[in-house]
Amino acid sequence: NSPGIVVETGPEPPWLPEVTMSGSDPDAGFEGFLVTALMAPGPTAAILDRDGDWVWWWNLEQEASKVAGNALLSNDGQSLLLLAFTPDPLDAEPGPMRIQLDGTGSAELGVSGEIHHDLVELPDGTVAVFLHDVRIVDDEEVEGQRLVEIAPDGTQTEIWNMWDIEEYNPSDPSTIGGSWGHANALAYDEGDDAYYISLRSFSCIDKIDRTTGDVLLSIGGDRSDFTLEGGSKSLFTGLHGFEILDDGLLVFDNWSAGGTYSSALEYSLGWEDSDAELRWEHVADPPLFCPTYGDVVALPDGDRLVVWSTSAQIDQVTSGGEVIWQLNLGMGAAFGY
Questions:
Q1: Whole-model pTM over 0.90
Q2: Which string of b and e fits 106-115 if b means at least 16 CB within 10 Å?
Q3: Is the C-alpha dihedral spanning 281, 285, 291, 297 positive or negative?
Q4: Which terminus in the chain has less CB density within 10 A, N or C?
Q5: pLDDT averaged over 10-residue windows placed end to end, the chain, 337 residues
Q6: What is the C-alpha to C-alpha distance for residues 274 and 219, in angstroms, rounded to an integer?
Q7: 277 DSSP β-pair partners
Q8: Contact (Cβ atoms closer than 8 angstroms) between residue 71 and residue 57
Q9: Cβ distance 53 to 67 under 8 Å?
Q10: Is residue 67 within 8 Å of residue 43, measured between CB atoms?
Q11: 3-class DSSP assignment, residue 233
């Protein structure tokens, strides 16, 4: 390992939200740092330590109309990738930003189209993003989805497009209002060279072959390859952030109990027998409802981080359901993924 480098960041700017810490044992919180996106105030990439102190931040100035979907540490550990976008599907975006951790600068990756929600970086530095694909069907604007890769040399390649694999049906609930599918969270499986895509309107996660764009399997929804005891395929509703585990799935369920509250769920999935079983659930106390975003992350010690994005709260929860560490941001703030 190389020697540590100390960087003086200067005083916190006044626009960074106030942080409040609580929990049954805050000193037992995760080791290391929390990299996250802030959707408000203004699109921001930021890093906190487990004591709730801001240790690094970068704000996309004069872009109040944009929101920050995700901020990721790059594979080489030298930069953060920030995805900021305008909710309007017809508003073209410059693409993700790569921001150097040492403060030497930032750069737009550039993309042709309207990006939104999420991004991932592949081992070779390629970045994958969602783009809207708006088409006119029977005089109606329909907001389809596509997945595009941006190679380190700037080359762009379309990997998957909803218009190629799904049949548009205007009477289907998943297409009402012109938003079709609503891809909103993304993960990459290096072993299978495949993507997992969350489709909120279909209440499912699809596994996509990176080479062909074909759907390899579906988790949740009407065409799910996994079934609960009793025959139901409905595992979650209006989902956002998720994480694929060796033996199952973590997922943030936005519309639990018909939209009464949101929850973090963990399912065991039988990759061979296609059985699904709910083995863990976390609901905030008091319950919180997050209509958009929300995330859940597995920690090495078996605990889970649950991100209540629009409620600006993060819980570290044990397998027994105890909240040992909780972080809240001040009024007006919100987390991305």
A1: yes
A2: eeebebebbb
A3: negative
A4: N
A5: 76 91 92 91 89 92 78 95 80 78 89 88 96 88 92 95 86 64 95 96 95 96 94 93 96 90 96 94 96 95 96 95 96 92
A6: 10
A7: 268
A8: no
A9: no
A10: yes
A11: coil
